[in-house]
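Hey, resending since the last one bounced:
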Amino acid sequence: MTKKIKIMVVVGARPNFIKIAPLFWEFRKRPEFAPILIHTGQHYDYEMSQIFFNRLSIPKPDYYLGIGSESHAVQTAKMMIALEEVYNQEHPSMVLVIGDVNSTLAAALVAVKLHIPIGHVEAGPRMFDKTMPEEVNRILTDHISDFLFCPTAVSVENLRKEGITKRVYFTGDTMYDAFLEVLELIRNKEAKILTTMHLKPKSYILLTLHRPANVDNELTLKMILGAVAESGEKIIFPVHPRTNKKLVALSDYFEKDYRFNNVVFMSPVGYAQMVILQKNAKKICTDSGGIQKEAYWLKLPCITLMETTGWPETDKDGWNIPVGSNGKKITNAIKNFNPQGCQNADFGKGDASKKIIEIIKHHL
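The structure tokens again:
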């Protein structure tokens, strides 16, 4: 009997779930692989986690570690302790880590100490800002990984500049694979879902906020929300659990200020619904790297609520404008940012997952 290739896939947050979905779709076609899924519990909220597994046909995690929210140090340490136990029990052929969250770094650190090969999916993007924990996680993970699966050619070049050239592959973006699949799934469902939500196409601005720099500081959060409210546009705002905790503390302020009458605060939605909300928006305001890419793929103006973008591919074609938390810049962009032009195939052709698994099979 042929020994199966045991791949341990570690996830912990919503963006990870989207990026692994097409990998598991591909694993199902290949009986030579035995994938094992570990969910650290880094960002556990039903709407932000379990619903993604259900809707994206991701298998139930083989291990759920239930780490939860802690400080960066405590969370990473707890993950490492729990992951080491699982690795020693399972003896995987490779650990596959995704993106740039704390789960990514923790999983990679344990693997390198145990001499288990590491594959990093979405290696190479850079924000060039080490005050961001995601930037630190990604840099460290890239430098200890054995296989680096890059979503864009820019990512490959970033790694080259840091001296990383061995086993670096431009595969395209697995998130783009998932995005194309979901576009097919929602093709006949958009009208019904928009009607249920009492929305008309191109009648609103979509807003998302979750990064600590934007939501943990009360003044910054007020400035951003005040700016989008003063635009006069209808604002649809699915609220991330992290952001919701901050809004609850400021609920009296937002309820009493007339400016926020045009802001629709709503619970988080599943991935398919989120793509529908994006596809039918006039513009998008976000601090999410994933949503910046999706806006680009949908040919939608994206106003990035950060000083820079980790996806310069979206910026160079003119569809993304970083404005930070500056109220005047936000309001001005909502009114006047109307890009024209085309998109390039910077993120691949929708077959990144297939390429990644072929590379793993070849080497293992």
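The chain has a mean pLDDT of 92.

Sorry for the duplicate.
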